[in-house]
Amino acid sequence: MESKLLLLTCALPLTSSTSQFKLKPSSSSRAVVVVLKCKNKEYLSGLPKEYYDDEWQAEQREKTKELHRRREEEDEEEERKVEEYREIGTRLKDYPEEDVRKARKLISSFIRSAEQVEEKIEEAAEKGELTEIVLMVIWNRLDLARRDDEKDVIRSLDLLYRRIETEILKREATPAMRLLNDLLNLHDGFDEEGWIKQCRKRMAHTFPREDPFSILVPAGFDLDTHQGQLRLPPEVDDALLRVDFVREVDALLQEVRFEQDEVKSAEGYDPESVASRMKQQEKQRTIRHVEALLELAVTLKW
C-alpha cells in the first residue's frame, strides 16, 4: 500500500496552527503519515510532545525502576510471610499428633462455650487436660492472628491464653501461693477494710490453730472433772501452716522488690510510655496488698 510523506521544515517551534495541521484521507485506502521536522527533531502526528522530551523519558525510566524495586520488595515480603507461616506450622510437629488434635478440640470447645468458658476451663483443669500443648496451640493461632492483624481474634485469644496459663500455674503452685492468689482475688478494688476482714476470716479457717492451751486440752475435754472424749486431731496432708505461708510470701516480696528496683519508670506521654506507667502502678498496688496480707498473717489471732 502506497503512502505519501509530507515534509514541513520550520525554523521556529511549532505553533498551534501547525500542530493542528491535519490531512484528510483521500478516497483511496492510502495511509498518510505526517512527519513534522523542527530543529532536527521528528514528531509523529498524534503523539504527545513529552514523548520526545529527554528529561521526561528519564523520569519515566526512573519510575519504571522504582516500580520494579517495589515489586521485588513485595515478592520478598510475601516469601518471608510464607516462611513464617511454614515455621509456625512446624512448631507442633514434635508433639504427638493425637495430643495436638485433642488440644485443638478442647480450645474449640472453650471458644464455643462463650459465657461458660470459666466453668469449662476449671473443669478441664480438674481433669488434667490443660497442658503445655494447649498453650502452644493457642500461641500458634495467636501468632498467625498478629501477622494478619486480626485485632478481635488477637484480643480473644490473648485473654484465653492468659486465663489458661493462670489456671495451670495455679494448679502447679504451692498451697501458700494458691491461698495468696485466692486472698488477692477477694479484693473488689474499693473496700479495703472489708477485704481485710474477709482475709482474716479465711486465714483463721485455713491455718491450724496455734493456741498451746487447745493443744494440751482438746475441745470436748472437761479440765475440772477430767472427763470427756479425747480425739486426735484430723490428719490433713495438705494442711498449710501459718509459718509456711509467711515464709513463702516474704520470699516472694523480696524477689519482686528486687525486680522493681531495677525497672526504670518510663517517661513521656506516648501510648507505650503511658501503658508502661499504668502497668507499674498496678504492680505497686498488688505489692501493697501482698504486704498487707503478710502483716495480717504475722499478727493473726484466733
Give a summary of the structure in a few sentences.
With 302 residues, the chain is mostly helical. It has helices at 16-19, 54-89, 97-113, 117-126, 132-148, 151-172, 175-185, 192-206, 212-216, 242-262, 271-298; strands at residues 3-10, 31-38, 41-44, 221-222, 227-228. Strand 4 (221-222) and strand 5 form a beta hairpin.
Topology:
Layout lengths: L2 E8 L5 H4 L11 E8 L2 E4 L9 H36 L7 H17 L3 H10 L5 H17 L2 H22 L2 H11 L6 H15 L5 H5 L4 E2 L4 E2 L13 H21 L8 H28 L4
Parallel strand pairs: 1-2
Antiparallel strand pairs: 2-3, 4-5
Helix pairs in contact: 2-5, 3-4, 3-5, 5-6, 7-10, 8-11, 10-11
Structure notes:
This is Protein PALE CRESS, chloroplastic. One of its GO terms (cellular component) is chromoplast. InterPro entries: PALE_CRESS. The structure is a single chain. By secondary structure, the protein is mainly alpha-helical. The chain folds into three domains: 3-52, no CATH class; 57-173, no CATH class; 176-226 and 238-298, no CATH class. Helix content is 62%, strand content 8%. The protein is built from eleven helices and five strands. It has a three-stranded mixed sheet, with no helix packed on it. The chain has a two-stranded antiparallel sheet with strand order 4-5. β1 (3-10), α1 (16-19) and β2 form a beta-alpha-beta unit. The chain is elongated. The relative contact order is 0.05. The model is unreliable at 1-40 (pLDDT under 50).
